[in-house]
């Protein structure tokens, strides 16, 4: 049976987390210079919005790219459980040696989703709004 037309399915979730921009590979002066107020020892918080987009064929029998009820579970495991109400730098082992910029948070979400999705080939984009003004998109490249 040939596959149906392709569609883009996006689901949005929000989570809250705190972090500090600090690189172990830079001196204290370099950290202050590069990250400025975001290097403050006490850290700061964000209400992040994450949009996950799948691109895949619409299944001819179900009419779906993926059942959104299933996608909810995958996003819960990949995003909410590891990061919601967490200190990214202290509570998420991935960020013990990776700076918790939004770029790296997007890569972290992508890697987690690849492990969750039954067919990771349909993962098209992870887009993260760190603030209303600061937005990062990652497509696995
Ligand atoms: N390339 C990146 N640059 C910066 C990141 C990042 O993740 N990637 N992150 C930060 C800070 O963590 C923080 O997000 C900055 O927040 P803030 O300046 O408060 O946010 P806004 O730009 O929305 O607010 P303004 O009022 O316009 O300052 C910094 N850089
Ligand atoms: Zn920040």
TrEMBL record:
Zinc in keyword set: yes
- Name the top EC class: lyase
Q: Is Lyase one of the keywords?
A: yes
Which superkingdom, per the lineage?
A: Eukaryota
Q: Which UniProt keywords apply?
A: Lyase, Metal-binding, Tetrahydrobiopterin biosynthesis, Zinc
Family matches, as InterPro entries: 6-PTP_synth/QueD, 6-PTP_synth/QueD_sf, PTPS_Cys_AS, PTPS_His_AS
**What Gene Ontology terms describe where this protein resides (cellular component)?**
mitochondrion
Q: Which CDD domains match?
A: PTPS (cd00470)
Tell me which stretches of the chain form a coiled coil.
none
* Gene Ontology molecular function: 6-pyruvoyltetrahydropterin synthase activity; metal ion binding
Pathway assigned to this chain's UniProt record: Cofactor biosynthesis; tetrahydrobiopterin biosynthesis; tetrahydrobiopterin from 7,8-dihydroneopterin triphosphate: step 1/3
Gene3D superfamilies found in the cross-reference section: 6-pyruvoyl tetrahydropterin synthase/QueD (3.30.479.10)
GO terms in the biological process aspect are: tetrahydrobiopterin biosynthetic process
Cofactor(s) for this UniProt protein: Zn(2+)
Q: What NCBIfam families does the entry give?
A: 6PTHBS (TIGR00039)
The family line of this record is: Belongs to the PTPS family.
Name this protein carries in UniProt: 6-pyruvoyl tetrahydrobiopterin synthase
UniProt organism field: Ladona fulva (Scarce chaser dragonfly)
